[in-house]
Specification:
This protein has about 180 residues and is an alpha+beta fold. The protein folds into 2 domains: about 80 residues, Arc Repressor Mutant, subunit A (Orthogonal Bundle); about 60 residues, no CATH class. It has 6 helices and 6 strands. It starts with 5 loop residues before the first helix and ends with a helix.
Length: about 180
């Protein structure tokens, strides 16, 4: 893609910051990897090295939620991106913009709608359902159900219909 120079390294790091900035949500390592690999922006090992270097230099931070680690931009990274964005080739920015436009909804569902369950006893499962926006839970429901089948079905339905279900719950709760 570029000549192997220090400018190439800087542009690749800027690309990672650009992706996180453009998508406007924090991403897991696997989600960042998916964006980078599907757009053939750099190889996997370079990507991991750049993420590590961005963390070490405080351009990225991470936090854990529901057993997953999310990468987040810092003020320092946003300032650097604003200052050096012109160094990212416009055709690559456009490629990323198109990809994010087509895939943002899917990524949002992966990061903002959460559903899982755990077995408590032979006939008891706890289902944990959440909708999160900007790292803040909008709704968090724990349900006790009698079977693995029910727990799986509830999780599947939540992942497909969480915005509608959330809206219905709010309407039921504010109804006079």
């Amino acid at each position: 893609m570029f000549q192997n120079t220090s400018e190439e390294l800087a542009v690749n790091k800027l690309l990672l910051l650009y992706i996180l900035n453009k998508i406007e949500i924090d991403l897991t390592n696997s989600q960042i990897t998916q964006v980078v690999m599907e757009n053939d922006l750099m190889n996997y090992f370079s990507l991991q090295q750049f993420l590590s270097e961005l963390m070490q230099s405080n351009f990225l931070t991470t936090y854990k939620e529901d057993g997953k680690e999310y990468y987040s931009l810092t003020k320092k990274s946003i300032q650097a991106l604003e200052y050096f964005m012109s160094r990212i080739p416009s055709d690559i920015k456009e490629k990323i913009d198109v990809y994010i436009f087509k895939n943002k909804e899917k990524v949002l569902k992966e990061t903002q709608i959460k559903a899982n369950f755990s077995k408590i006893s032979e006939n008891e499962f706890i289902v944990n359902l959440k909708v999160i926006e900007n790292q803040t839970p909008l709704i968090h429901i724990d349900l006790n159900v009698a079977s693995n089948k029910q727990a799986k079905l509830i999780c599947e339905n939540w992942k497909k219909n969480a915005p509608n279900i959330y809206g219905e719950i709010i309407q039921l709760l504010i109804k006079k």
